[in-house]
Structures are given as C-alpha cells and as structure tokens.
Design brief:
By secondary structure, the chain is α/β, with parallel strands linked by helices. The chain is built from 15 helices and 19 strands. It has an 8-stranded parallel beta sheet with strand order 9-8-7-3-2-1-11-10. Strand 7, helix 7 and strand 8 form a beta-alpha-beta unit. Bound molecules: alpha-D-glucopyranose and calcium ion. The site of calcium ion (CA) has 6 residues, from loops.
C-alpha cells in the first residue's frame, strides 16, 4: 500500500517536559541542547513528532504555563538559535515539532499585564478581565480559581479585580478585545514562519468567558475545592470559541502539513469532539481513556466510545500520560511489574488513532514521591496532603545508572526516582525482554502495517471478561489484536469462519509466547497477540 503518510495521523507523538529531559549546562534544568542530543534516540524509538511543553520565558509559578513573552525562548532552555537548531535537526530525522501555546492567560510578569495594571486608561488595561467590585463590595461574580480560592484578585491601586482561572500570577486574557485576539493569532504565524509543525492549545475552551460575566449556578454538596461547587457554564466553552478555532485553522492551512491539537478543560468527551473537524482542530485530548480502570471491558467501552464519536470524518488520539496526571505505570502496575504496562502499550499502539507517549513511559518510569518541602507544583503546595500536585510525573528522565540518572551532573530541580540504577534507558536497551524493546518492536510493527496506522477498528465481543479483542483493517489487510487483561492463561477461539488462516506476528519479546493452533490461541497472563489474516 503506497498511500502517503501524514505524520500527525499515522505517526506517534512523544511529549517532552523540557525541564526534565536532559540538562547540558549543569543547572539542574533540562534544555533544548539536551533534547537535540537525544534526537537519535527518539528516531530509533520510532516517533514522528515531539510535543514540547512550553519553552517560552516564564517565571515558573506554573512551570512554563505562565508565559511572560510569547516570541522567544526562555534563557534557561536556550535561545532562538538553539530552537532553530532543534527544528532543523528534528526535521532531518523526520521528527516534527509541536509547540504548546498557553493563550488563556499570561504571567503577571508579562509586559502586557504590567501595563494593564498601571491605570484604567492604559491601552493594555482591557487586555485582561478587570472589573469593579460588586455593588455591595467584594468580587464581581462567584467564579473561582481551579488552583484554589477565588478567581478574582483585588488590585489596591486600581480599585479593581482581575480574573484568573488558575494561579493569581496567571491573569486571564480578554479574548473579546479585538487587539488581543489579533495578537494571539499572530503568535501562530510567528512560530509557523519559524518552521514549527504544530501546536497544542492549552485549556483553549476557556479563552472566552460569558460577555456579562454571569454567576455560575451552584451545585449541591460539599467540595474540597470551592471551584467544584459550581456548574461551569459561563467561564468555559462559550460559542465564540468555534469561530476562533476556524480562524486558527485557516492560518495553519496556509502552510503545508501543519497540525493543531487542543486540550479542552472541564468538558466532557462530546463537548471535546465539537472542536474537532476539517475547519477546526485536527484532534483533541480527552481523559476518558486515560482514566479507565484496568479491565478489558472498561477499555473496550472507552475505545468504542471515543472511536465512534470521531466516526469516519475525524481521527482520534489517545494518551495514557501527560505532565498533569500520575503516570499510568504508577496507577496500574506495581513498582517492578511491567507485564501490565506491556499489555497497555500493545493496546495504546494498535488502536485507531494517534498515540501520544510521555517521556519515560517507554521504560515504565514511576512517579516520584516527595516530601512537602520538595513540592514545586502550585497545586501540590496549595492542597497538600489531599492532593500532592503534579510533580510526581515530572521527575528527571532516567537515561543511565550515572549519578542523577545521566540527566544532569548537578542536583536536578526535582529528585530522580530512586529506581534509576535499574530502570533506565541504557539498561533496558540491552535487555531483550525490556519494556523499551517491547515498545520499539511494536512501534516498528505499527509503522509497517497500514491496518495498524491507518485502518478502521472494530471491537469483537468474545463474551470473555478478561479479553479485549479488536480488528484493524484496510481494504488490503486485516489484523487482529488480542489482549489478556487477567493474571491467568486465557484461551481465545479465532474467527476462522471469516478468515481462513491467521498468522501470529507479534507476541512481545517475552520469553513466554502464546500457543496457537489453526483455530485457537492461548495467551499467558497479561499476554498480547497480534495476528495477520491471510486472505481466503
Ligand atoms: C493546562 C496544563 C497545565 C497548566 C494549566 C494552566 O491544563 O496542561 O499544566 O497548569 O493548563 O495553564
Ligand atoms: Ca540546563
């Protein structure tokens, strides 16, 4: 099959949290030069794109998600020349670069906000959501911050409040101001002109708020976070978002092969789907799959739902990990047991859609556990010990058994996981049955087979609770994926009526292999089998 591959659709996207990937100047913080050093590794792994968490300047209240300048590189990561080098070195290896754009809010250190708080008459004043106190005094409405406390912060000098959905050092922009909107759209052009291949839009459906800033309705019950006591109908998902995405898509479509993926915020899957389409986002993230319990039935349901929501006209994507959520390894598996992780990898890399991987997922890095004093994330600082924040999944990449896991020669910004001497890339690269080698062979298989990277999906009901089975197919080939979610051996009767012969082409590089006859397949605990049909 000679159809042209489309990198963001047929490929695999790998998220890098730049602070934690590779430090090259001994400041304990990863940098762009560090990423360039590992492009060969990423190419060998077989990925097609990198999503970089923000690399623009930031005072790091929210580690890059509070931007103080949209047009350059934070000096702690390097400079624009380093970025050009990263782009050209990545492109040489057919790796595409996706930037994270945080356009809902800026840092309070951004020049625009500094100007905006100078006076009510300042030209930038209206770039943010400033409001007078409510008639009786106090906050202008009942909106809260998801990071804790009220959404409104009072400024003594101006006698007004500004709104922040996140930390008070992350004031929300006023997208209803035409200059703000135009400036935001120019940011896309700026990075596209530099050669960036795509964007990940941070909490994009929060950009527009209700024009009259109406109160959100209260929900019954008691919630730890005041934010959760309201139904969020006026502070997110406003109708103005669709035309904004359409304008963004028009900008992207003027350049070849560009991609935009969005992170919806507080939206259910159906709402997330609305933003995806030919004239809007190429793809959107949804937590449904990542939040699924470890069971064949539950994953079957999640995949079926997200897949059919996309239908023929859109292409799903899937993630199990990102920088905001505990690692799937820590959620689903014990500290030393990778069998379940192989099973999940086999599912993740064979469903219909673009798989996202998060750095270290390929070696099963586990979350670090931190003492209160080590917490860096504003969420953990605020909600300890009920919520320890998101630092756990952001620890330094474990390259080898050298001090600090080869991430740095200096003390890293977050501690390295104590398991790094055994669990690291160098070690897994030379261990035949490692998780890393499992990922590599599966990615290679996926790249070879149009049924896997471009085919349709149909779930097969086996009547067996422990098994998740689906077919992937194009007009030219059909593959069958059989996944055993249980800790016991499972038998599966192959659909031989429809296809007269199946070849077992992948069982993982585990020492235990599946036993197969013409009509039956036995899978070991957490076993994986991928089969290719020979046409009748
Ligand atoms: C997104 C990011 C998260 C950040 C928040 C505010 O959810 O993924 O890391 O804290 O937006 O920008
Ligand atoms: Ca550094």
């Amino acid at each position: 099959m000679n159809e042209k591959k489309l990198w963001w659709k047929d490929g695999i996207i790998y998220q890098i949290y730049p602070r934690s990937f590779q430090d090259t100047n001994a400041d304990g913080i990863g940098d762009l030069t560090g990423i360039i050093q590992h492009l060969d590794y990423l190419q060998e792994l077989g990925i097609d794109g990198i999503w970089l968490s923000p690399i623009t300047p930031s005072p790091d209240v929210d580690f890059g998600y509070d931007v103080s300048d949209y047009h350059t590189i934070d000096p702690k990561f390097g400079n624009l020349q380093d970025f050009d080098r990263l782009l050209s070195e990545a492109h040489k290896r057919d790796i595409h670069i996706i930037m994270d754009l945080v356009l809902n809010h800026t840092s309070d250190q951004h020049r625009w906000f500094q100007e905006s708080r100078m006076s009510r008459g300042n030209p930038y004043h209206d770039w943010y959501l400033w409001r007078d106190p409510a008639p009786g005094g106090g906050a202008p409405n009942n909106w809260k911050s998801i990071f804790g406390g009220p959404g409104w912060e009072f400024d003594e000098k101006l006698g007004q409040y500004y709104f922040h959905m996140f930390n008070k050092h992350q004031p929300d922009l006023n997208w209803r101001n035409p200059d703000v909107r135009a400036t935001m759209l120019d940011i896309f052009r700026y990075w596209l002109d530099k050669g960036v291949d795509g964007f990940r839009l941070d909490v994009f459906n929060a950009w527009y708020k209700d024009a009259d800033l109406r109160d959100n309705p209260r929900l019954p019950g008691i919630h730890l976070r005041p934010f959760d006591s309201y139904k969020h109908i006026y502070d997110v998902s406003q109708p103005e978002m669709i035309p904004a995405l359409q304008d963004i898509r028009k900008i992207l479509d003027a350049y070849p092969n560009r991609y935009v993926v969005g992170e919806t915020f507080l939206a259910d899957s159906a709402q997330a789907r609305i933003y995806i389409g030919e004239d809007r986002l190429h793809a959107g993230f949804d937590y449904g799959y990542a939040n699924t319990p470890f069971s064949a039935k539950a994953f079957g349901k999640a995949i079926q739902f997200w897949d059919s929501l996309h239908g023929e006209n859109a292409w799903p994507n899937y993630f199990l990990n990102n920088h905001d959520t505990p690692r799937s390894s820590s959620r689903y598996a014990g500290p030393n047991d990778d069998a379940k992780l192989k099973l999940l990898a086999a599912m993740h890399l064979t469903v219909r859609g673009t798989p996202y991987l998060y750095y270290g997922e390929e070696i099963g890095m586990r979350d670090v556990s931190l003492s209160r004093g080590q917490i860096q994330d504003p969420v953990g600082k605020r909600y300890w010990p009920f919520n320890k924040g998101r630092d756990g999944c952001r620890s330094p990449m474990q390259w080898d058994a050298h001090p600090f896991a080869g991430f740095s020669t200096a003390e890293p910004w977050l501690p390295v996981h104590p398991n790094y001497k055994v669990r690291n890339i160098a070690n897994q690269a030379v261990t035949a049955a490692s998780l890393l080698n499992f990922y590599k062979s599966l990615i290679a298989l996926r790249r070879q087979h149009p049924a896997l990277y471009a085919g349709n999906l149909s779930l097969i009901d086996t009547g067996e609770d422990a098994l998740l089975v689906y077919k992937r197919f194009t007009s030219e080939e059909t593959m069958l994926v059989v996944l055993n979610f249980s800790k016991s051996i499972q038998s599966y009767t192959l659909p031989v009526a429809e296809f007269n012969h199946w070849d077992l082409i992948f069982t993982g590089n585990d020492p235990i292999t599946s036993h197969m006859t013409d009509s039956n397949l036995d899978l070991p605990p957490y076993g994986v089998a991928i089969l290719l049909s020979q046409a009748a």
